[in-house]
Write a structure and sequence with these properties.
Number of strands: 4
Helix content: 10-25%
Number of domains: 3
Strand order of the largest sheet: 1-2
Strand content: 5-15%
Distance between the termini: 52 Å
Shape: elongated
Structural class: alpha+beta
Order of helices and strands: HHEHEHHEE
């Protein structure tokens, strides 16, 4: 009888390619990359003053330019501090077991910490296109807690990029009522 794969199975190794594990989480934030960053923000708040229009008292004729009544257009707003936390937790056994290329496809610390930083970066990037209420999308209709499976329909399909698997959603009837929770569900 010939030695076959079933008999020899205990001696066979698992074969892996040299390919890296693909990170399929949405991580491109081109607008955030383009926005100028100010890293010396201290104190209570930061007034931002903008000039959005120049005087339009000009003409090919001096008298017409002199008769103009336009002036510079200015506006200001106050940048205030807000908190936005992202926590990475890893148990010690997982941390030790995943150290080094021979032990794991990737180190647990790198995956969890980089993921946590990416989550916070996405929050900042999404917030750049929103008001200060913290909303990530608007629903067509307010859901009820008794529905299973829990399904929501967004007013704007493009907002789907603001949601991730495992994300906990807090649904408000009105985005101006920030602290009145109606529904809290795990998004999966």
């Amino acid at each position: 009888m010939a030695l076959d794969l079933t008999s020899f199975d205990a001696a066979l190794k698992q074969h892996y390619t040299s390919d890296m594990v693909q990170n399929m989480v949405y991580k491109d934030n081109p607008f955030l990359a383009l926005v100028a960053k100010y890293e010396d923000f201290g104190g209570r708040n930061l007034p931002i003053v903008l000039i959005y229009g120049n005087p339009q008292n000009r003409s090919a004729t001096f008298a017409t330019a002199q008769a103009g009544t336009s002036n510079s257009k200015l506006e200001d707003f106050i940048l205030t501090r807000v908190k936005d936390y992202s926590i990475a937790t890893i148990d010690n056994e997982t941390l030790e077991a995943s150290k080094g290329n021979a032990n794991a496809f990737m180190e647990a610390a790198t995956v969890e910490i980089d993921g946590s930083i990416n989550s916070l970066t996405r929050s900042v990037a999404i917030s750049l296109f929103r008001d200060s209420s913290g909303y990530v999308g608007q629903l067509n209709a307010e859901p009820t807690e008794v529905v299973s499976p829990f399904v929501i329909q967004l007013k704007s399909a493009e907002d789907v990029t603001n949601f991730e698997l495992g994300q906990v959603l807090v649904v408000f009837a009105d985005k101006s009522r920030r602290f009145r929770t109606n529904v809290k569900r795990n998004f999966s």
